[in-house]
Amino acid sequence: MMQLLADRIRKDGVVKQGNVLKVDSFLNHQMDIELINEIGKEFKRLFADCNITKIVTIEASGIGIACIAAQYFQVPVVFAKKSQSVNIDGEVYSTQIESYTHKKTYEVIISKKFISSDDHVLIIDDFLANGCALIGLIELVTCAGATVEGIGIVVEKGFQSGGEVIRSMGMRLESLAIVDGMNAETGEIFFRE
Ligand code: 5GP
User: What share of the chain is helix, strand, coil (3-state, %, to 5)?
Assistant: First the structure.
C-alpha cells in the first residue's frame, strides 16, 4: 500500500451512497500533481522489471495519471476514446464498456495505428470497481496482438469483484491502495494493509 495515498484518501476522500468514493479534490477533477507524481514514481518502482513500450488508459480520468507515470517509463500514452460513431472502416479496435459511475455503456476505441503486436503495455487507471473498464482495455490491447505486462490502479475497491476477476485472468495487477470497506453514514474508509 502507498501510505501517502491512503492518508490523502482518509483526509480528503468522500464516501457517497452506492459504494462510490469521491476523490475529485485531488485525483480526478482537481489534480494534486505532487501526489500524482509520487503515484507515477510508485508505478515505475513496481513495474521496474518490465520492459514497457506503451501505457494505455481510458479517457478521461486515467489520462493525467498515465501521462505523469509515462515520464518515468519514457514511453507514449495511448488513451482509449469513448467514441460516438460506429466503427465502419476497420481502422480501430473497439469494444463496449459499462460505466460504473454513469450506468451507461460506451463504445471505446483505439486506433490500430497506435498499438501493435510489438508493444508491451502497462494499463493504468484511477479506479477498479467491477472491472468492466479494465476488461475492455485488456481486450483492446489483446486484439492488437500486444502483451499486457501489467496493470496499475490507483484505488481498488476490494469489496467489489474487479480485482478478483482480473487477478484470476492471470494478470499482474498492482493497486496502490485497496479499500476493503466504506461507511457512507460515518464517512469511514477501511484499507487493506
Ligand atoms: P469498473 O469498470 O471497474 O467497474 O469501474 C472503473 C471505472 O469506474 C473507473 O475508471 C472510474 O472512473 C469509475 N469508478 C468506479 N468506482 C468509482 C468510485 O468509487 N469513485 C470514482 N470516483 N470513480 C469510480
Answer: 30, 35, 35
Ligand 1 center from residue 111 Cα (angstroms): 24
Ligand 1: residue whose CA is nearest its atom 10? 127
Q: In a mutational test of the pocket of ligand 1, which residue from 30, 101, 124, 135 has the highest number of ligand atoms less than 8 Å from its CB?
A: 101
Distance 37 CA to ligand 1 centre (A): 21
Specify the CATH number for the domain of residue 102. 3.40.50.2020
User: What is the rounded CA–CA span in Å between residue 159 and residue 163?
Assistant: 9
Q: Which residues contact 131 (CB under 8 A, 6 or more apart)?
A: 161, 162, 163, 165, 166
Q: In ligand 1, which atom is closest to the CA atom of 130?
A: 4
| pLDDT one digit per residue (tens) for the chain, 193 residues | 999 999 999 999 999 999 999 999 999 999 999 999 999 999 999 999 999 999 999 999 999 999 999 999 999 999 999 987 666 677 999 999 988 777 789 899 999 999 999 999 999 999 999 999 999 999 999 999 999 999 999 999 999 999 999 999 999 999 999 999 999 999 999 999 8
Question: Domain range for residue 161?
Answer: 3-191
| Total number of domains constituting the chain | 1
